[in-house]
Amino acid sequence: MKPRAFLIIAAFALWGGWAARSAPPPAAPVVADFGEAILSNWVQPDYPEAARQAKREGRVTVEFVVELDGRVSRAQVANSSNEMFNEAALAAVRRWTFDPALEEGQPAVSAMTVPIEFRLAQLTQKSPPISPANEFMPHARKLTPARVTQAPDPDYPAELEERKLPGEVRMEFTVDTNGRVVAPRVLWASHAAFVETALRALENTAFEPARQGPLAKTAAMQYPVEFSVTGAKRAEILDANRITVLADSPDTLPQPVVLVEPVYPLERLLARDRGSATVEFKVNARGRTEEVTVAAATAPEYGAALTAAVEAWMLQPAIAAGVPVPIKLRVVHEFVPPATGGVARLTENLRPGAAGVGGASGLDQKLKPLWRGFAVYPAALRPKRIQGEARIEFIIDRDGRARLPRVISATREEFGWAAATAISQWVFERPMRKGEPVDVRVSIPVDFPPPAD
User: Fold this and answer.
1) Whole-angstrom Cα distance, residue 181 to residue 425?
2) Strands 101-103 and 106-108
3) Which of 22, 87, 94, 287 could disulfide-pair with 317, CB 3.0 to 4.6 Å?
4) Domain 38-137 maps to which CATH number in 1.10.443.10, 3.30.2420.10, 3.40.50.620, 3.65.10.10?
5) Cα 159 vs. chain centroid, distance in angstroms?
6) How far apart are CA 11 and CA 172, in angstroms?
7) What is the pTM (predicted TM-score) of this model?
8) What is the per-residue pLDDT across 391-447, written as a single tens digit (0 to 9) for each?
9) Are 313 and 258 in contact, with CB atoms under 8 Å apart?
């Protein structure tokens, strides 16, 4: 079964809509950041002589652009009940002036539309009005969302192929007026391995920019990328991750959503020590793990590492008789030093007499996190509701992945393992020094506030 990844375009979130500006109350002055253009100088259209003689009435919809200085440009007729009114409507609109639209507090060009009515009654009015009726006020044209014109399928991460894990990365970013992606940000990732390939796919995705009439507009978007192994069933995914059901199988088995690997205790890894741990746990009807207990472990730290990982897991719940139900599971994890890959390379660098890994000084730019997994408050400490802290040292490798987290200090051992587990999923922009990607060693504190009820 071949792994597949799919791009899914979510609902378009267009930032900077067109909320009208209004006078702020004196006690609480407000400065508008966004708002559509406001009519500041209006003249009533002249009634065409031919229409007056023929005693005709009409309606013309005019579309136009308000420039940065408030002048009208690109006026054109969008709809008309009678062509004899068109030129009079256009001539009037071209004489109007506006306070320009605001976007992020700055004047912005905007596309507008206005309906103009010609009634014979205006020929007998004693004096022309100084402003149009509300129903004939100009208003901003509707924004058309940005859309994808070409989207490549991202590669499924090779490191997860044997585990057959489904995955998702949710991103938000801006599509500029040229259709380019600007400032992508990862909102959530089910696994660190999916982040880089999702961002790489986004870089190669082409967009048609958002539009407001004839104007291209900057727009914010959300963009999920989903990963799956074609044809992999839930039972196969559980089996590939050495998870077994400890009771009669329900109608529908749970499916992993977040399945973080346990942190390999660094001292054991450097000593090339192999070990294993078995943990039993329950997945409740909301898909969260609870009642996590160590059934067996070749060393206490292996059991502690696996416990912290399982407490961070999320699954789609099991289904019985059409409703979600809790289910008891068991997982076995083997701690085996890798022979290849980034962890193997870094492990060799940390052995006595090797080159080691230096700090972050002298980098071409500051370290920039792309995704930071959240630390889960340890279940064993929840009844005590205590404040906790841990300091974790880890390596950001040349690919931007957080590797080999090690607990430097912790107010409780459980906080240390929970913090290290979260940091193992962090992803950064690649650290660069003199234009070359490098590995860097860093340390940070992780706080654990008392959990809410």
Assistant:
1) 25
2) antiparallel
3) 287
4) 3.30.2420.10
5) 23
6) 11
7) 0.81
8) 999 999 999 999 999 999 999 999 999 999 999 999 999 999 999 999 999 999 999
9) yes
